[in-house]
């Protein structure tokens, strides 16, 4: 933001909210104004990604990364975190795969960190604030030595495993890089992600991407003036918290080839012995069965207009006059938007 502008009413942007502001301003909710936001509370999540992040944090804090012969300790930390959070690795979705990836990747991550030199110090989950630009963020890994600063973002998902990193991750890294330069007074010498699937990937990031920072200032000013257009796109909308009630999204989704949702009147809900429920949804273009839904309370939604999200189509669109077949995933959800 420009110098002299009264800052206390200006919302802070994290890399996540900044990415949302750039991709769909209507999706940005819950921005914090006033004093700098606090560091996020330590995660207590039990997904494979959350457990892996916590294990890496323990590995760094225990200084195990310094010694090549302690690379195996990363998997021990993973088990210790799972035990502390009272979950069995084998019972967590992708738990065993993540365990194997940690085992496979620990040595290359350790090597990367040790490149910083013998005098290097490593910090995990570092929260930095730039009060002038009202930007803040929590960095996964920061390694500092006389030779420079290494900024490493740890990733367990598919998004960072692609050969070209998505724009969302690149803008996150730009903001992290700016925060390090602004708060620590040294631009990072190495910026990139460490994907548990693919290993290290360095990206060329300038310490302060003035084009990006200027664009964020513009978008934030427009957002504050309630200029918040909805810009639907499959990857942007997938996990958006506003998705259930966002009409522009549901209109756009009708034309998406790989759409992952259906809406219409819920005609039936049949629960099998295994506890999973099949839903029959009808709309103006036909009907659809969504099988394998987890959860309860579906009967109460019969007769309602519902929107079912993050499901997979099993029959190609338009290939049959029968009801289209869809299957629920672990992240599927349903919302009622009226009778
Ligand atoms: S559902 Fe999509 S279009 Fe609607 S607010 Fe969210 S990201 Fe934007």
Commentary on this structure:
The chain is built from eight helices and ten strands. The protein has 339 residues and is an alpha+beta fold. The protein has three domains: 1-36 and 117-229, no CATH class; 39-114; 234-336, OB fold (Dihydrolipoamide Acetyltransferase, E2P) (Beta Barrel), CATH 2.40.50. The strands form two sheets. Strands 1-2-3-4-5 form a five-stranded mixed beta sheet. The chain is globular, with a radius of gyration of 23 Å. The model has no long low-confidence stretch (mean pLDDT 89). The structure holds iron/sulfur cluster (SF4).
Break the fold down into its secondary structure elements and pairings.
Blueprint: H1 15-23, H2 48-61, H3 73-84, H4 95-114, E1 121-130, E2 135-145, E3 148-155, H5 167-184, E4 190-195, E5 199-202, H6 210-224, H7 234-237, H8 247-253, E6 261-271, E7 277-283, E8 286-293, E9 305-313, E10 324-336
Parallel strand pairs: 3-4, 8-10
Antiparallel strand pairs: 1-2, 2-3, 4-5, 6-7, 6-9, 7-8, 9-10
Helix pairs in contact: 1-5, 2-3
Domain PD-(D/E)XK endonuclease-like: 13-246
Organism: Geodermatophilus saharensis
InterPro entries: PDDEXK-like_dom_sf, PDDEXK_AddAB-type
